[in-house]
From TrEMBL:
Name of protein: N-acetylglucosamine-6-phosphate deacetylase
Lineage: Bacteria, Pseudomonadati, Bacteroidota, Cytophagia, Cytophagales
Domain Amidohydrolase-related: 51-388
Superkingdom: Bacteria
Swiss-Prot/TrEMBL cofactor(s): a divalent metal cation
GO molecular function, one term: N-acetylglucosamine-6-phosphate deacetylase activity
Amino acid sequence: MRLKIINGTVITPYRYIRNGTVLVEDGVIIGIETRDVDFPNAEIIDAEGHYVAPGFIDLHIHGGGGHDFMDGSVESFLKIAETHAQYGTTAMVPTTLTAEKEDLLETLDFYEKANAANANGAQFLGMHLEGPYFALSQRGAQDPRYIRNPDPAEYEEVLAYSNSITRWSAAPELPGAIDFGKRLKQKGILAAVAHTDAIYEDVLEAYENGYTLATHLYSAMSGVTRRNAFRYAGTIESAFLLDMDVEIIADGVHLPAPLLKLIVKIKGPDRIALITDAMRAAGMPEGESMLGSLKNGLKVIVEDGVAKLPDRTSFAGSVSTADRLVRTMVNMADVSLLDAVRMATATPARIMGVHDRKGTLVEGKDADIVIFDADIRIQRTIIKGKTVYRNAIPQI
Ligand SMILES: [Zn+2]
């Protein structure tokens, strides 16, 4: 199985290679050339002058195409992976919502079956458990009935149950949260601070004990607070001050342009991962939808490119796709295309610990590749050398 991609502008994503050629064998990149080269017996893909970039890696995603990972079926996992592959995502970390332990364990079961059956969708990089150890005051759209403090008896059972957990988000100020972070670090699981009212002292201790990422920066987390006369730095300022990684919902709605620019200015493209945090309505027409599982979900309305509570007082989830994240960073945050692509590829790959095989177009990496036009509309998605999506609309 050999593949040669010609006639594109390759984004490595550390530089452009104009009129570059990508050589693939058995799903792995075996060469990036600055001109067309002889490569016998290969399928040839003409990029038609479009960009050829690493596939997008989404570290935080709940659903799409009408499905949620908590729906309780293998089919949901596969449909979400296939839907987002159409928008350039080649790898993702399926994310749960705060729920009862039994529902989490069941979702882990479905994950393993789906992972084995996933032939045409974005690859799964393990599960992200978002909760249930959160601050009630910062729950956002997480169901308050299931929010609780870290309990070793419970999380040890979950950790023993499955090897598929690669990421876990928790509020670090809760009793037991530091021990929980240490345990995750010991297991090689990425610990992230989320849905939290922590002040700097809490976040610093957490950072020193395994928490290295801030989950959807600015959403459901503390900023500067005052207690009597004295001011305290919150989670947001702590994430800026410490050498933490941050992920941002760059759908252009959750964070306005000045905040996107501020985050880029302070953290830079090597510390920022673009995430969709998408719910089931991503890739679907606007209108009524359901946040969370079909069984326990919350009715929401999708309009203006975002999900809202029916009374429109609050956002209730993102409906973004990965191409839109990159577009937003270029168009709203004035970031270069190279940097925007980096935040959707190389940086999330490094944060997730898969940079040895994903996130850049260099020799030896998996052939996870997207071809997109000047407006970042996806023309083709290739996963491990196999085309899983092609835009059927002829180019004008
Ligand atoms: Zn989420």
